[in-house]
Specification:
CATH class of chain A: Alpha Beta
Oligomer: heterodimer
Strand content of chain B: under 5%
Helix content of chain A: 25-40%
Largest interface: A-B, 17 and 15 residues
Structural class of chain B: mainly alpha
Protein name (chain A): DsbE family thiol:disulfide interchange protein
Family (chain A): Belongs to the thioredoxin family. DsbE subfamily.
Helix content of chain B: 55-70%
GO molecular function (chain A): disulfide oxidoreductase activity
Keywords (chain A): Cytochrome c-type biogenesis, Disulfide bond, Redox-active center
GO biological process, one term (chain A): cytochrome complex assembly
Number of domains of chain A: 1
Number of strands of chain B: 0
Shape of chain B: flat
Strand order of the largest sheet of chain A: 2-1-5-4-3-6-7
Number of helices of chain B: 5
CATH architecture of the largest domain in chain B: Orthogonal Bundle
Distance between the termini of chain B: 82 Å
CATH topology of the largest domain in chain B: Helicase, Ruva Protein, domain 3
CATH topology of chain A: Glutaredoxin
Distance between the termini of chain A: 55 Å
Number of domains of chain B: 2
Largest sheet of chain B: none
Radius of gyration of chain B: 25 Å
Structural class of chain A: alpha/beta
CATH class of the largest domain in chain B: Mainly Alpha
Largest sheet of chain A: 7 strands, mixed
CATH superfamily of chain A: Glutaredoxin
Radius of gyration of chain A: 21 Å
Order of helices and strands of chain A: HEEEHEHEHEEH
CATH architecture of chain A: 3-Layer(aba) Sandwich
């Protein structure tokens, strides 16, 4: 009985060790989206190219990526080329120009190429808040019937695409 | 006397350092103002690990402060505003998580530990007293 009592701190130490070890390497910034499994919120946004008011009805009816980007965002610049590659492979990407200036956005797309099937401008960032984004870039996988399947915060690259692809095929 | 204007300038700098650089808001009544500050103090900035909306200068925190303000002016209740934030950013934004099964340990765990600790303390005290008596006798 006494020996067991002395062993207690060691056992507690091991148990805590296991708990802490499992937390190691986890991204502390990671936050699951509150919108997973829910419909894309209703919106009325201006289409960048046609300059007309666009609603949810214009969204694709097959799985697609929704990418929040902006010309002021350095990480968006980093992922732009890779988004171009994905678009070439036939991935449908809807761009949301988040809290940006229309002219700057048009210039950016003209200079670097346009990977988006359509670009909607969220000038005030209200749609971004409705989607629960905390900054740019953020990329959502959305199903053909408009349900949010997955959210990735930060740059999309080949490694991230592996995960996104898995959700697109569901 | 020569240095007086420098002194005034220094005081000005020091005083302005202490205040937050948040937006200036106008309210119809002090109650609304109080509710605004209570809410932005209690809601956590979704971009930051350990800052509330009031403390954070992250772009999203500025936007959400604006949103809270708009909703208060529009006559929404505190609960409506909190529900709005939770619907978009999840329970992460609550510095006071809801009482429910998944947060049971969080809310009552410390009291359980305190109770166990107190129990062990009493047990040890009683045993020590008994040993002391046996030694006396």
């Amino acid at each position: 009985m006494r020996k067991l009592l002395f062993g207690l701190p060691l056992m507690a130490f091991i148990a805590l060790g296991i708990v802490f070890y499992q937390q190691l390497g986890k991204d502390t910034e990671y936050m699951p989206s509150a919108l997973i499994g829910k419909q894309v919120p209703d919106f009325q946004l201006i289409d960048l190219s046609s300059n007309t008011v666009t609603t949810n009805e214009a969204l694709p009816d097959t799985p697609y990526l929704m990418n929040f980007w902006a010309t002021w965002c350095p990480s968006c610049s980093a992922e732009h080329a890779y988004l171009g590659e994905l678009a070439e492979q036939g991935v449908n990407i809807v761009g949301i120009d988040y809290k940006d200036e229309t002219e700057a956005a048009k210039k950016w797309l003209a200079e670097r190429g346009n990977p988006y099937s359509m670009v909607l401008t969220d000038e005030m960032g209200h749609f971004g808040v409705d989607m629960g984004i905390t900054g740019a870039p953020e990329t959502f996988v959305i199903s053909g019937d408009g349900v949010v399947l997955y959210r990735h915060q930060g740059v999309v690259n080949a490694e991230v695409w592996k995960t996104l692809k898995g959700y697109m095929q569901r | 006397m020569r240095y007086l204007h420098w002194l005034v300038l220094m005081i000005g700098v020091v005083v302005s350092l202490g205040t937050t650089a948040n937006e200036i808001r106008e309210f119809e009544s002090p109650t609304l103002e109080q509710r605004y500050y209570a809410l932005i103090e209690e809601l956590r900035c979704p971009k930051c690990q350990n800052q509330n909306l009031e403390d954070s200068n992250a772009g999203i925190a500025v936007d959400l402060r604006g949103q809270v303000y708009e909703m208060i002016i529009a006559g929404q209740t505190d609960q409506q505003i909190i529900d709005y934030m939770v619907a978009r950013y999840g329970e992460f934004v609550l510095y006071r998580p809801a009482h429910k099964q998944s947060t049971l340990l969080l809310w009552y765990g410390p009291f359980a530990l305190l109770f166990i600790g107190a129990g062990i303390f009493v047990l040890i005290m009683m045993r020590n007293r008994r040993t002391a008596k046996e030694l006396d006798g």
